[in-house]
């Protein structure tokens, strides 16, 4: 818990304000230097064209505001010995954040070639947004970041995710007023309904109204301030406004306001932690209104720049070729009085350097921001003990996620400080209701009689926003914890774009030596495309897999366990894994259990395999391969295999089931890729393969087009035909049903005789019979609904 | 403009309230009937198992609230002769909306087999959520809908989109309190900053707090009501609360509140349309707090159901097998007193039927909800006049979107009532700044000195929310207008999931005869993956194409124009097209112009073609095919072709450019697919194809795997390698550069001799030289930066 301003060490003095201003000027100077300079970093000589970068890339507009926030947070950290980190919504303001990490020494620790001296400053400037250097955004390369600001909207949810289960952490979060217009950010304010002040840390939102986006004013800066405050109060915050364009005034107001906010946080936490009922407090936040591009050129070529959208990127654009622009840049840089800020070696003068916190208290070195450093393994109950004993093959018929639910319940129990299950109001609906035996849902809103499984102390996160589930979980993982996000399969597309950014983060951090691996982001997708009995076409979309496999192979894994036991094995594997995105798709409705726990473990370890018991090739070369991936396609494939065994006993059918989709790719393309020799052994090099697949059929072609036997591969899958109908009608609509698979076999195995022609017609008739029955009675024909293996 | 309650015809009478309640009971009765009954719709005999559907699918919880809103809106429509439509956020409440469309006769007009009599009622019940019938959500099959409620979050943005440029339309929009938690919905409230009361219609949001989602209470129902109202007021609304669980009381309050809200809308519009300065008014809205599953079973098996989440779907689940449940259902149905509501033939009694509006005033028959009926062609200026005259091949170097901007400007001018350009603060940044010569941006917030191109009268929509741009445009298109959405390529993934739903809508409505085709949804994606000089990795993602091509072939088109003139031709085509999703990707930076306007037209008409002038095969069979799609890949391919012509003049190189990506697919897979014979003629059946592609290379394989020459196809594209660097370094990072393409040719054409080996080494050296130069000087090597064709 944080100290309060009753402590004399916290009180603000005038000398401190001067030092704060100097620090701010230093950070602003370094920000401008990064955008413009290749050499002459201390302006020892007049600026010449050769000192200027050939391509001016970077964003100035937000930098002075970020620098302002940073130095004031530093003051508070030192005064109160705060455990604080910063999430930077306007993450394109990397020059500011990098400047601060250099001032506090972290940048040089992480990148020893960039020392805190003149040579280091030269390199700091040169390498910014320069080929081979650090990118122009607050990317993973920047110490202290868990949030790259390229795609806007996710800062506040990341901040909350970081705060959960970190009671002593204060997460400051700058929200840009541009970002505030996005849906995901607008939907994030209510996160405080899910933050428990006794158990979780604090989030301090700082809404920075600099008034402009790339080319437009922002909405929140142009509605009446009373309206803005009304919104924020309505969301349960106590907003404090700090506004101005006179630095010393703003410094004083911001410092005292920050003190007030941190005092309130201390009071809230102290109240909540005294024991007794935990209630949702009114959390403080800050609305900071300062000019965009503050302290930059007021005008350029007669057009206003400071305080307008024109300062968004590079206010002076022709510095190399236009002497007036160059002179203006020099005036601008010198306005910060660098000679007062840096000593002759180029290092920050002690009055500045001493203002920064030390060691892990620096926001750029806070261990929470390099979550892998804090990561502790989950305590995982032995999943084998949760397995379903298999009697007859295919028995029992169980909901796979329901079986998993028991294990998830015990994972929650065993890890009360480092694991979260999240879902958009779909935990129960996805079959994981057993989890509520271990924990309620976190909820700080009013709880009423008749409510179930709701409590401030709950650990399961349910909110009807896939964005929040994803963003909270990302923040939680990036700060060194673990989690599972369960969603309906179709709607996980809502976070496609967030997945992109997280995948990029994982990809980049694999190559940053000081970034430690974090826990994988685990998706458990249920209520999938084939079983949307209640909801129909709008809920039918298996394309998330396609989206995910476009990401870098090193960071993505896709699993389609065919039954409950394989699902257990896969989820255990996922929760032990590091630095991946794991997508697991499993059904919730009753479905056959095909493999004993022992067989399931072996099968999952291999990722794919021949199911001898289902085929008729008995170790010889088959006539045809029936491949399947996904629970429903597996069911249809096995039913087809049975039909073939019964009606065409002479046909040698091999059944192959794929759990780990990445096994299909060549080993050159994915670390899980099966070597060609093994692929050829399993799938043959010349026999027809009828592949029943859970998703869009083209994906299987895209994964296998380099395989020898690809020309004989025929894939059935979801071809965007759906509605509210019965389960078997759904597979028929997409030609994935057992009867169609038999037809596909007959059409592709040339040597079959008249028995096959007869069988083919019987299959056509069976399809029609099923369709007619369903249209008449509204349910599936007993011959498919009551089918059992064997 | 709407009548006000000073008009005596608008005043509420007690008799009217009774009739309203009867209408509500009728709609509730019909809703329950749809969920449960197969027969015996008027309860002429006691309910028996055979009267019950075998599978009970549907959502009851939201129905009574929707029915309540519907009948009260009907009263207002009749009293005020309103032009009103309804957007139903809780669109899973289809039983309610369908019930109302049947009561007002529209359902029977659209589906003549479902008449307004006992047989029709039987069929109405049977076909709901039944194989072969209408889906369980307010899908496109439901008359009066422009919004399928499966994926939550988009109702309010659709409502605003429908209201733009429809001055006489009032769009009522029920927002569910579950949906309200989503980011996109939370971000929608500010839409009123973009609605001009003088020119646009009105949106009347009705936030329905029934308190629960699937398994949870909702956040907005469980924060203090003062907080909720504070949020809504802050967003510029005047919220009126209607709360209760006593029907007659709620009827009275809702009717008078609705009167008040509609009076205020009338006053706002009248004030704004008197002339003079248009300001952002405080629009009325309604907060409706009624029990979930109101009037349904209070308890089932001793557990509370009405007013809890347990009424979300089917409150009584065992009606076929459990006599108690069946008796409870019968009690429930009879509680609506059907004998008072329907005459002996099964038709609604006159007192009820007469309450509905007539003809096109019925919300279910409002022509705006079947936008194709109102659609008028755009007036399109002759794009050929905007073309760039080509001098030397490749000259001039221009930004393609900048050239297009002039044409877009004139499209805006020529269509002041039916065309909108939308973008997330990226219109200027994407090179379309010329549009502002024709129109300002719509903005009803405060406008300050120094602002540019902002006015309430503006027609260009800019808000930093891809969700809003997409949702507004969908609403606008679905009500019969036209538009273009311009975005950065990477961030259009933010609306992946919205795209899914719109594509489904287009797919389904192709097969609904009474739905007329609407204008296509046109994406102009610029600031694409190859030219993110300022922003780096977070802004680099070309995967939207992959996402789109998974949709039904009949509704998607993807274009990659290689230069300014082809872009003009393509955009003209897209704006004339109907019922598609067109994705156009084009650069904004200076790039060569390859084709004269005349050639561009021919090339775009063909969709792909051999560029004779760039190759050396001169009509003979080539040794190698260089294929390209996208502006940057085209540039690199032509540079590679030039290198080959110069260094290996004996090698016969064919250059093929692809504009219309769908041409690559087999004609069986896509209507634009090239017949195999033509494909073979162009790409040969046995020569190596080196394909330089704009996006992820696997997509080209997925499109072409069935082509004869696919085994010889080698694709270069974006393989997820990026950062902030120079344009040429970006293509080098992904092996798409000219030098690497030459290496690819040499490695794949076996007959080349020692000259080729020498050239290969030169290419390797050139790559290294370029990389070194860039790392040193921060810009591209002059040999690539200053390259010109010829």
| Quaternary state of the chains | homodimer
Shape of chain A: elongated
Mean pLDDT of chain A: 96
Radius of gyration of chain A from CA coordinates: 30 Å
How would you write the strand order of the largest sheet of chain A?
12-9-13-14-16-15
The helix content of chain A is 25-40%
Number of strands of chain A: 22
Question: Beta fraction of the residues of chain A?
Answer: 5-15%
Pfam family, one (chains A, B): XFP
Domain Xylulose 5-phosphate/Fructose 6-phosphate phosphoketolase N-terminal (chains A, B): 12-373
Organism (chains A, B): Plantactinospora sonchi
Keywords (chains A, B): Lyase, Thiamine pyrophosphate
Kindly list the characteristics that best describe this protein.
homodimer; 790 residues; alpha/beta; 6-stranded parallel sheet; 5-stranded parallel sheet; 26 helices; 13% strand; Xul5P/Fru6P_PKetolase (chains A, B); Probable phosphoketolase (chains A, B)
